[in-house]
Amino acid sequence: MKQTGVSEEEIFYLLSDAKKRDFSYQRVLSSMCTYPHEVAVRAHMQFIESNMGDFGLFRGTHDLEKQIILMLGDIYHCGSVEGYLTTGGTESNIQAVRAMRNFSRDRGNYDSSEVRPNIVVPASAHFSFDKIADILDMEVKKADLDHEMKVSVDSMQSLIDENTVGLVAIAGSTEFGQVDPIEEISQIALSHSLPLHIDAAFGGFVLPFISANHKFDFSLPGVTSMAVDPHKMGLSTIPSGVLLFRDFEYINHLRVHAPYLTVDTQYTLTGTRSGAAVAATYAVMKFLGVEGYSKVVERCMDLTGHLVERVKGLGIRPVIDPVMNVVALEVPHPTTLRTKLSSEYDWHVSITQDPKALRLVIMPHLDIGTIDMFINDLEKALRS
Ligand SMILES: *Cc1c(COP(=O)(O)O)cnc(C)c1O
Fold first, then answer.
1. Which residues in this protein are found as N6-(pyridoxal phosphate)lysine (predicted)?
2. Residue 30 counted as domain residue
3. Does the chain have fewer CB atoms within 10 Å around its N or its C terminus?
4. Total structural domains in the chain?
């Protein structure tokens, strides 16, 4: 840092220059984030200084947070819901697994000085579970997927042992947008008396608003917690994630004594926490309602259908028929194609790991014109 500050004009010149080097979402088919809704942006700005780490000082914002949790409890069929706003899916997953581990430890289910507890997750789990293994020093056992990229219930069951403290299932996988057989996994969780966390970071703001009726939430009795990200399909500002628990019993295992704040306990991972994201999430959820989100999701699903129709015309098949607005395409040499699309055509896409395929997320910032332009370039890139 320099000794003397520079003028505001110069600062904003520097910022504009940096922003020009960011890619515009219009060319991005790899991101699960998008432009936040303008109502969310306005709300975010209005609450920019609000700190939910000391919510006794920000009682109004804290009320908004409680209302978000209740609205989500309503959508996900849970009258006794508890929870809070996180920085996103990663933090929600860390905290959910930490709660499972503490729940088991506090009940004396295992001797923490002797054994390393484990959880069983689908092989398609987000890489945040690799961070979890490291941070919580737990074993994360990965269950096989079937040909539709759903977790195999038999594989999950075979991995459960006496040191297993919980199960995870995915409602909308990051790579393929697939939903695990959560109804069956809920039964397994109940029969083994294990908590079950649902990672619906992406799917949470998609599945309730599509016509297909996937059972994935607290309506299934085995489900004990959920991760949902308003900063993805919820159109809120970053950082907006939500961690939900079926009831107070589970969240209580995250309690920490908080000296020198206006509140004496904290359940969160971070200390200082964005009240702006709380206001933004509240605002956009109230503004759009079920009808508004249904329109957003329906539009993305129509675009996804259009994209799949067109690529089939090019002889390209999706790895699975899209369940949500995430598509993985079976193309020759996906890694090379990805590089070519980026360097020669300025399209930003990603690839899946197993099987390797071209991964596209059809977010609200895309439209039919953009999809058609992309497919024309994809065709050229495949031919050259
Ligand atoms: C995006 C995503 C995450 C991680 O969320 P962040 O907000 O990036 O931390 C976790 N799980 C799933 C299924 C996701 O799609």
1. 232
2. yes
3. N
4. 2
Instruction: Read off the pLDDT of each residue in 35-47 and give the average, rounded to a whole number.
Output: 98
Structure tokens at 229: 């990200």
Task: Tell me what pLDDT residue 114 has.
Answer: 84
Instruction: Report whether 329 contacts 358 (CB < 8 A).
Output: yes
Interval 72-95 mean pLDDT: 98
Last residue of a domain, one of 241, 268, 286: 286
Residue ranges making up the domain that contains 21: 8-36+289-383
Q: Specify burial of residue 272 (Cβ count, 10 A radius: 0-12, 13-18, 19+).
A: exposed
Alpha carbons 205 and 270: distance in angstroms, whole number: 24
Same domain, 87 and 106: yes
Instruction: Quote the ligand 1 centre to 365 CA distance (angstroms).
Output: 19
Expressed in angstroms and rounded, the spacing between residue 25 Cα and the centre of ligand 1 is 18
CA of 126 to the centre of ligand 1 (A): 7
Based on the fold, state whether residues 277 and 299 are members of the same structural domain: no
pLDDT tens readout for residues 143-196: 999 999 999 999 999 999 999 999 999 999 999 999 999 999 999 999 999 999
CA dist., res. 324 & res. 327, Å (int):
8
Give the strand order in the sheet containing 82-86.
82-86, 241-245, 223-228, 196-200, 164-170, 118-122, 139-143
Q: Which atom of ligand 1 is nearest to the CA of 32?
A: 1
Residues 131 and 264 in one domain: yes
Say if 2 falls within a structural domain: no
On whether both 50 and 62 belong to a single domain, the answer is yes
In a domain, residue 1? The reply is no
Q: Tokens 């209005």 identify what position?
A: 46
For 298-322, how does the pLDDT look when each residue is reduced to its tens digit (9 = 90+)? 999 999 999 999 999 999 999 999 9
Is 229 touching ligand 1 by the criterion CB < 6 Å? yes
Q: Which two tokens stand for residue 296?
A: 């957003």
